[in-house]
Design goal:
By secondary structure, the protein is an all-alpha fold. It contains six helices and no strands.
């Protein structure tokens, strides 16, 4: 959770309490906001230099993540992570796509 999102969550709880709602209701509003947050819903790979227009290839772990979420809608399994750790996923990409 980003600092600005945390501040919004705290404000939601405070507003709920000020309106006479139970603490639990305020926390429920804050949790709903967190679960709807783009940083919770979407996977974002930030560039080292966000102002750069240079195209860079994905590193092994980014590739494992994209492949797994695209095909399984879930995090990479141990085999993908092991290949990424060893720097061998790019070389074995076709075989891993077939396996998944």
């Amino acid at each position: 959770m980003q600092p600005d999102e945390l501040e919004r969550s705290v404000r939601l709880v405070e507003q709920s309490l000020a309106a006479g709602e139970a603490w639990e209701s305020g926390v429920q509003f804050a949790m709903q906001a967190a679960l709807c947050s783009p940083s919770f819903l979407f996977r974002v790979e930030r560039d080292v230099d966000p102002l750069s227009s240079e195209i860079r290839p994905l590193n092994e772990h980014q590739l494992a993540s994209r492949l797994s979420y695209f095909l399984w809608s879930s995090m990479p399994d141990d085999e993908l992570l092991d290949l990424a750790d060893a720097g061998q996923l790019t070389a074995q990409l076709q075989g891993q796509v077939r396996r998944l």
